[in-house]
Amino acid sequence: MNKYHRLILIVFLLISTSLSLPQSVSAAEFNPNFIISDEEILNANAMSVEDIRRFLQSKPGILKNYIVEVNIKDEPFRRVPAAEFIYERAVKNGINPKFVLVLLQKEQSLITNPSPTQRDLDFATGYGCPDGGRCSERWRGFSKQVNSAILQFKDYMDNPQNYRFQVGKTYTFTDNRTGYGKVTTVVVPANRATAALYNYTPHVYNGNYNFWKLWREWFSLQYPDGSLLQPKGQGIVYLIKNGLKHPFKSKAAMLTRYPRPNIITVDPSILDQYPTGEPIRFPQYALYRSPKGTVYLIVDDVKHGFTSAEVMRTLGINPEEIEDVSQEILDQIPEGKPIDINSSYPMGALLQNRDTGTVYYVKDGKKYGIVDKDILTIRFGKNPLITPVAPDQLRQYVIMPPLRIPDGTLITSDDPSKPAVYIISDGYKRPFVSASVFESLGYKWENIITVKDKIVEMHPTGEPIDLIS
Q1: Closest alpha carbon to 64 in 80, 53, 72, 79
Q2: Assigned architecture for domain 1-24+407-469
Q3: How does strand 359-363 pair with strand 366-370?
Q4: Where are the alpha helices (DSSP H) in 32-117?
Q5: How do the domains of the chain map onto residue ranges?
Q6: What pLDDT score does 28 carry?
Q7: CA gap 190, 37 in Å, rounded
Q8: Which pLDDT value is given to residue 131?
Q9: Cα–Cα dist 140/145, whole Å
Q10: Which residues contact 401 (CB under 8 A, 6 or more apart)?
C-alpha cells in the first residue's frame, strides 16, 4: 500500500465527524531578530492545493470563492480559483504557500474579510506600495500582486547581498506598538528570511509583528503528546508532553523509555514555541546504590528504595546492574514508595496463563491484558521474555484495562478500505488530514506500522492532525 493510498485525503471522513480542529498554542515571545526560519519560507511543498482550499474554506474571507483573472506578462489570460493560483505560483517559484497566505492577510486581510474593496484585491500583497506613497499602477491586479511578491521574496533569499537589510547587521526602528506608543527597537536579523521581511516591510510592529502573530496562530507546528523532537544540528532530544518540551539528559534515559524512537528533526524555532518542562534525567529502571548502601530502583524519575537485600533477591535483582552514585545525584530524584516483599513486579513483567495462553503485563500488583500479538511486539519487541504461571497466581492481581499502542506510534489499519494514518497520543488515535501535513511535520512513511483493524479501533478517535487552527 503506497503512502497516497494509505492517506487518500481523509477529508471526507473529517467532514462527517464533529471533531474540532486543534488550536495552536504559542508559548514563544516575539523575537524581532528571528521571525521565521529560512526553511519555512522556502518550503514550497508545505501545502497541497487541497490543503490551501480547505484553509481558505475554514476562514470567512473572499478568497474561498474568488476566481483569479491571471494577467501576467508573457502568459495567456485565464481564470482559476484562488487556491490553485496561490499553489501554482508558490511551487513554481520555491516559496511556501503558507507564507503567501499570511502575506495576503497581513497586507489586506483578504483571508478573513468577506467584503474587501476592489483596491484591496488589486494590491493584495502591498507590492509596489511604498510607505507614504501611491501604489504603482504597473502592479495593479491580484495575479500580478501575488506573482510579484513571491518572486521578490525568492530574490531576497537568493541574493540577500543586493538589499538593504542583511543578516548580522544592526538596524534601529522606531514605530508604533499598540498599548506602548512609539517604540525604538534595535534589530540584528539572524537569518535571510527575517532580513527579507524587513526589506519588504521596514517596520517592527507596524507589519512584521503582525506577520509573526498570524504565522504562529495559523501555521505554528504543534506536535501531539508522545512526539520526540530533535532541533536540527543539535544532539538533544525532547519529549513533547502536555504542551511542554522535556529534554532527555542522556541517550539511556530516552532508549529505556523508547527502545525504537521515532525522532523528528525540526527547525529550532519550532521547539522555541514550547516552554521547557522537567528534564528526564535518569534511565528507566536504573538501579542506584547510595553511599550508605541503600539500593534504589528509578521509575519515571522517582526513586524507590528496596527495604532489604532479601527483597532484591526475591525480585531477581542482578547485583551487577547496580551502579554506585553520589548522594548529590540521589538528592536530585524525588523519593517514592519503598519496595518491600509485598511489592509485585515493580519493573513490570510479562506473565502467561498456563491454561489459557493469555499474556498479561503485570506491574505493581496490577495486570493488563494483551489482546493481540501486534501490541506485544510494538511494546516489548519480537522476542520478549514471557513467564508461564499458574492461573491462581494471576488471580491475585487487580484487573486493569488492556494495554494499547504506546504514545508516539504511527499506525494504519490492515483493512484497505480504511486508509487513514494515525499517531497515538494520550491513548487516542489522531488522524493526519493529508499526505502533505504528514510530511510537513517531519514524519517518515517507513515508520508507519500496519496493525489489525480491531487494534486501531481499540483507540478512541482524537482531534485530526492539521497545520491550520
Answers
A1: 53
A2: 2-Layer Sandwich (3.30)
A3: antiparallel
A4: 38-42, 49-57, 82-93, 97-108
A5: 1-24+407-469, 26-219, 228-271, 287-331, 349-400
A6: 52
A7: 9
A8: 82
A9: 7
A10: 368
**Which residue type, as a one-letter code, is found at position 54?**
R
Query: What are the φ and ψ backbone dihedral angles of 107, each rounded to 5 degrees?
Result: -85, -45
Cell of 300: 519515571
In the prediction, which pLDDT does 248 show? Answer: 95
CATH 3.30.2390.20 fits 349-400, yes or no: yes
Q: Could you tell me the CA-to-CA distances from 95 to 56, 334, 421, 430 in Å, in that order? A: 18, 49, 27, 29
Q: Would you say the CATH fold of 349-400 matches that of 1-24+407-469?
A: yes
**Angle made by CA atoms 154, 159, 164, in degrees to the nearest 5:** 100
**Rounded mean pLDDT for each run of 10 residues along the chain, 469 residues in total:** 39 32 44 89 90 91 95 90 96 95 97 96 95 89 96 97 97 90 93 96 93 86 86 92 89 87 84 84 90 91 90 83 91 90 80 94 91 90 87 92 92 94 92 86 91 94 75
Residue type, 282: F
